[in-house]
Amino acid sequence: MTRSYYLVPFFLLLAFYSEAASSPIPANIGFIKSSCNATAYPDLCISSLSLYATTIQNSPHQMAVMALEVSLNRTKLAQTFMHLLTKFKGLTAKQQEAIADCKDEVEDSLDRVNRSSIEMKSLGQAGGQEFIWHMSNVETWISAALTDDTTCMDGFSDLATEGKIKESVRAQITSVAHYTSNALALINSFAAMQKH
Ligand SMILES: *[C@@H]1O[C@H](CO)[C@@H](O)[C@H](O)[C@H]1NC(C)=O
Ligand SMILES: *[C@@H]1O[C@H](CO)[C@@H](O)[C@H](O)[C@H]1NC(C)=O
Ligand SMILES: *[C@@H]1O[C@H](CO)[C@@H](O)[C@H](O)[C@H]1NC(C)=O
């Protein structure tokens, strides 16, 4: 019995592993490529956003909006993953504790990315002080979402949590953090352009 409990979730873990859909890249993505240059993970940025080239066109605002949506969707997957892990049998008390804490962090992060996504979408027409206010909200929330990811992994610093579970959480959280870091870079680029 115990064995099948372990096997089924691990198939699910594997299903979530892949970073981004490797779809064919449309020809005209020059704007996306040059914008992604400002991010820490440009390949991930290009592969995840070139799917939305027709929406993005040459708009730094749409670029940031879509990057946040991609980050939101990826964070939702991580939330599902953490939820599944809490159902796992045969975990030590330390592992259970680290998983429960990390699930809370991922949920906080999801909430912050969601709020940022909504705020960013409504930002199109705002100007002056109002724009700066909304932008600083988004920048604060996304930075906090990245901190949540780090805090999640801190919970696994105890030696007693070493193993496959920790590695699978790390893979999830690292992937989420890469998408979110890219979104933050694109938000910052957009904000910097608007201030001129
Ligand atoms: C990316 O930046 C590097 C140096 O900062 C530059 O040489 C390269 O041409 C840029 N690539 C694109 C696609 O803008
Ligand atoms: C995010 O997920 C929603 C719902 O599954 C989907 O409709 C949307 O296309 C996704 N957006 C991106 C940018 O991946
Ligand atoms: C995002 O926020 C909206 C408005 O508060 C809410 O309706 C929606 O369920 C939230 N989505 C997620 C993924 O948390």
Automatic annotation (TrEMBL):
One of its GO terms (molecular function) is enzyme inhibitor activity. Keywords: Apoplast, Disulfide bond, Secreted, Signal. It is found in: Secreted, Extracellular space, Apoplast. One of its GO terms (cellular component) is apoplast. Residues 1-22 form the signal peptide. The lineage of its organism: Eukaryota, Viridiplantae, Streptophyta, Embryophyta, Tracheophyta. Belongs to the PMEI family. It comes from the Eukaryota. The keyword Hydrolase does not apply. It comes from Daucus carota subsp. sativus (Carrot). This is Pectinesterase inhibitor domain-containing protein. Residues 27-186 form the Pectinesterase inhibitor domain. InterPro entries: Invertase/methylesterase_inhib, Pectinesterase_inhib_dom, PME_Inhibitor. It holds the Pfam family PMEI.
